[in-house]
């Protein structure tokens, strides 16, 4: 297996999976399977793309543009065989906040900058490391996003009318919604409840059926036939355009770039994590392996392309990708066709979308939010490990009440501290009692180290070794079971060697691996401070 940084094949990790699929031999039967899978995913993507765009504070057509342009590029250029790209629920909070602060042109510029950053992450081969996000962090931020998505839909779910702009902060949003409870629209509540009931019912009755599309269509027909007083896509946004706009650049002055840059960084961080998590899910379902750096490069190109055509942030979408795999996809062609099918819908049936009640799309997102929460994973993490439970809860609370990026960063830092603590506990020092009484009389003592000798272990166990060395003239440390050593561990051993040398004692190191010995040498652990010997008999 070739590592991601293996120079023997420098370009292989950027090769799109589309090329690999075509090289393997692509037949008519594969095309038919991909066409069916692409149509299935497109049916799922249609209501979701519009719902996510509306919840993000932009028009529904921009969600469709994102699916058409971004989804096509992600599949055509990506490093995952089954990845489906498009607007994602995880971005709703960030995109809505971005639009509220710097407007739609600023959002498009931030999306372009994010695309360039994602492409750079891929070109610098950092995709291999971005995947190492701790599990409690992913579960916590996903649950936090779900709560925020649901809270953002309460207004349309209940048909509430707010006197001013809806607050984006959940601490101010909930009181504002409660204050407007007297404006509840029974028709909107009925449409939302009916949509959720149909989605759940169809899922149980016929799991393979496009339950969300069926629910939205039935809600639209019922609202139109019964003349229900509910807000629709047409009444809020007007008629949808039949084609994406011509590509154009947003204003790119220095001030505009500086204003968009913080948002672009947040989009990049979340986009990289979300897309690679989605690719990992696809790997687990299909038994394939994705190319993380190629995937990030494709995500970057897709975000630039989406913004040029008026779309919003693109990332890999876990639910649609899983649908693609389950629908029998043979490769990236299904994802490309899913984008084509959405384009056909826009060309042929765009006016019909105007009849969709916003309460129905809010119901769709309420179900999406519910499904995003990994309830079994949350319960297991809370039960099994107190440390992981703290990481999960801190991440969740920061995402909900502070900021999504802050939640990820702090959660990752806490996970790092937990990991260091666990690794330091795994590193032990065992005293090997001398077999011959004379050895003890001569002041010789042997200690075996077990586990990685890094800064966490060196800080905890270094004092013990240092204390023992006070009364011994011959001190032997067995490194046989030490797989690695960092600069802190090597420095701690160098200080021990110098202390023994000043007191006229001798330090012997046995069983050191070549890389461990090299690190110790660079830290100054060598003659005359210490001697490396092959075994205890050579001391």
UniProtKB/TrEMBL annotation:
Name under which the protein is recorded: SulP family inorganic anion transporter
PROSITE patterns: STAS
Compartments where found: Membrane
Annotated STAS domain residues: 434-539
Record's keyword terms, sorted: Membrane, Transmembrane, Transmembrane helix
CDD domains for the chain: STAS_SulP_like_sulfate_transporter
Membrane-related topology note: Multi-pass membrane protein
One Gene Ontology cellular component annotation held by this UniProt entry: membrane
Main location: membrane
Ranges annotated as spanning the membrane: 35-56, 63-84, 90-120, 132-154, 174-200, 212-234, 254-282, 294-319, 339-369
């Amino acid at each position: 297996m070739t590592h991601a940084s293996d120079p023997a094949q420098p370009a292989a990790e950027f090769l799109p999976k589309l090329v690999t699929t075509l090289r393997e031999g692509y037949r008519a039967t594969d095309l038919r399977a991909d066409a069916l899978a692409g149509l299935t995913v497109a049916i799922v993507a249609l209501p979701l793309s519009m719902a996510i765009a509306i919840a993000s504070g932009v028009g529904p057509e921009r969600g469709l543009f994102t699916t058409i342009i971004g989804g096509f590029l992600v599949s055509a250029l990506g490093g995952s065989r089954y990845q489906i790209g498009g607007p994602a629920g995880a971005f709703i909070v960030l995109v809505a906040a971005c639009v509220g602060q710097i407007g739609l042109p600023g959002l498009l510029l931030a999306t372009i900058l994010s695309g360039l950053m994602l492409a750079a992450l891929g070109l610098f081969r950092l995709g291999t490391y971005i995947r190492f996000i701790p599990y409690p962090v992913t579960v916590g931020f996903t649950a936090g996003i779900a709560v925020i998505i649901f809270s953002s839909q309460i207004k349309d779910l209940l048909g509430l009318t707010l006197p001013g702009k809806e607050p984006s902060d959940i601490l101010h949003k909930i009181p504002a919604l409660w204050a407007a409870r007297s404006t509840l629209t029974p028709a909107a509540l009925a449409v939302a409840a009916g949509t959720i009931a149909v989605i759940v019912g169809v899922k149980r009755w016929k799991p393979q059926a496009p339950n969300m599309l069926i629910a939205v269509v039935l809600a639209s027909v019922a609202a139109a036939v019964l003349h229900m007083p509910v807000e629709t896509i047409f009444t809020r946004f007007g008629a949808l355009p039949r084609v994406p706009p011509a590509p154009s650049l947003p204003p790119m002055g220095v001030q505009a770039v500086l204003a968009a840059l913080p948002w672009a960084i947040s989009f990049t961080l979340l986009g990289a994590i979300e897309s690679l998590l989605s690719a990992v899910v696809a790997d687990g379902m299909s038994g394939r392996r994705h190319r993380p750096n190629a995937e990030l490069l494709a995500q970057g190109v897709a975000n630039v392309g989406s913004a040029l055509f008026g779309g919003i942030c693109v990332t890999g979408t876990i639910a649609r990708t899983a649908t693609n795999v389950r629908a029998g996809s043979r490769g990236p062609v299904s994802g490309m066709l899913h984008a084509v099918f959405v384009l056909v819908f826009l060309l042929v049936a765009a006016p019909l979308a105007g009849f969709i009640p916003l309460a129905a799309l809010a119901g769709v997102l309420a179900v999406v939010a519910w499904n995003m929460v990994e309830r079994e994973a949350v319960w297991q993490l809370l039960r099994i490990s107190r440390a992981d439970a703290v990481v999960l809860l801190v991440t969740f609370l920061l995402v909900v009440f502070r900021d999504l990026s802050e939640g990820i960063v702090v959660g990752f830092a806490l996970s790092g501290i937990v990991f260091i603590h666990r690794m330091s506990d795994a590193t032990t020092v065992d005293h090997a009692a001398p077999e011959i009484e004379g050895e003890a009389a001569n002041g010789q003592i042997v200690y075996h180290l077990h586990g990685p000798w890094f800064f966490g272990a060196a800080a905890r166990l270094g004092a013990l070794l240092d204390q023992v060395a006070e009364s011994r003239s011959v001190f032997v440390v067995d490194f046989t079971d030490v797989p690695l050593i960092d600069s802190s561990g090597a420095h701690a051993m160098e200080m021990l060697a110098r202390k023994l040398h000043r007191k006229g004692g001798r330090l012997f190191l046995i069983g050191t691996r070549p890389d461990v010995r090299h690190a110790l040498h660079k830290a100054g652990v060598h003659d005359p401070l210490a001697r490396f010997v092959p075994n205890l008999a050579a001391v």
